[in-house]
Amino acid sequence: MSGLFDPILNWRLLPGSHTFPGPDGGTCINEAALVAAGLPYRAIRSSADCPPCFSGPLATYALGLNDAMPDAERPRLMAFVLRLAGSADAEAVEAERTAHLVREGVRRLLPPVLERAGLARHAQACRAVPDLGAAVTLARHAAWSAGSLAEADGRQGTWVRGARAAAAARAALFAAEIDPRKAADAAEAAALFWPGAWAEAVAILDEALRIGRQAPTLAPDEAGFRMEAAKAARREPAHAAG
C-alpha cells in the first residue's frame, strides 16, 4: 500500500497511554484514531476515556490487543485508525458486537491452543459452538479440563506440556467472560503457544466493526495530514530546545 495512506502507516503504535503524540506518532490505537479524526487529543487509559462517538466494546477490544501485542504485530491495528471514531451505536448493537468478540474468540482463538494442550475434543466442540451461551459454557468446561491437565503435568514433571495446558486454561478462563477486554486477554493467552492468534483476533475485530453503524468516511489524505501535523508539532519544540 502506498500513496496517500503512507502517513497513516508511518504512525507508530505503542502500548499504554500517552499524554501527546511523539515525533513518530507513539500512541495507542484509540489515541491515533483521535488524531486521525481531528478530535481533541486525550490520553486513553481505558475505553472510558474515549469520546462517546467510539464504540465501547470495540475500543476496549482494540485497546486490549494494542497493549498486549508484540511490537512486530501491533501495526496490524492501523487498519482500524479510520474506523473507530463514529462507530458508537445503540445498546443492542453494542451487545451484539460484544457477543461476536466473545463467541468468535471461543470458536477461533481457543481451538488451536486447546489442540496444542492435547484437548482435541474440546477444540472440536469450541469450533462448532452455535451461540454465545454455548460458547461461554464450553469455554468454562475447557478451562476446567485444561487446568486439571496442567496440574497433573506439574505433578509428573512434564513441564512443557503443562505450560501448554496452563496457557489453554488461562485463555479459556478469559474467553468464558462476556467482556471485550477479557476477549482480548484470551487472544494474548492463546498467542503464547499459537502466534496466529494475533492475526485471528484482528480479523474478529474487523468483523465486529462491520456490525451496526459504520464510522463516517474519513479520507486517508485528510487523516494523514492531521497525523503528520501532530508529529511535526512534537518535532518543533525539540528542535527549538536543541
Summary keywords:
single chain; mainly alpha; two-stranded parallel sheet; 10 helices
Helices, strands, pairings?
Elements: H1 6-9, E1 12-13, E2 25-27, H2 29-37, H3 56-68, H4 91-116, H5 120-127, H6 132-156, H7 159-175, H8 180-191, H9 197-209, H10 220-241
Parallel strand pairs: 1-2
Question: How does this structure look, described?
Answer:
This protein is mainly alpha-helical. Helices cover 62% and strands 2% of the residues. It folds into 2 domains: 1-88 and 213-242, no CATH class; 94-195, no CATH class. It is elongated. The two termini are 35 Å apart. The relative contact order is 0.17. Mean pLDDT is 88; it is low at 1-5 and 238-242.
Summarize the structure.
This protein is mostly helical and 242 residues long. 62% of the residues lie in helices and 2% in strands.
CA-based shape:
elongated
Structural class: mainly alpha
**Rg:** 20 Å
Q: Distance between the terminal alpha carbons, to the nearest Å? A: 35 Å
The portion of residues forming beta strands comes to: under 5%
What share of the residues lie within helices? 55-70%
Average of the residue pLDDT scores: 88
Spatial strand sequence of the major β-sheet: 1-2
Number of helices: 10
User: How are helices and strands ordered from N to C?
Assistant: HEEHHHHHHHHH
Given as residue ranges, the uncertain stretches (5+ residues, pLDDT < 50) are: 1-5, 238-242
Q: What is the tally of beta strands?
A: 2
Q: What is the quaternary state of this protein?
A: single chain
Profile the largest sheet: 2 strands, parallel
Overall tally of domains: 2
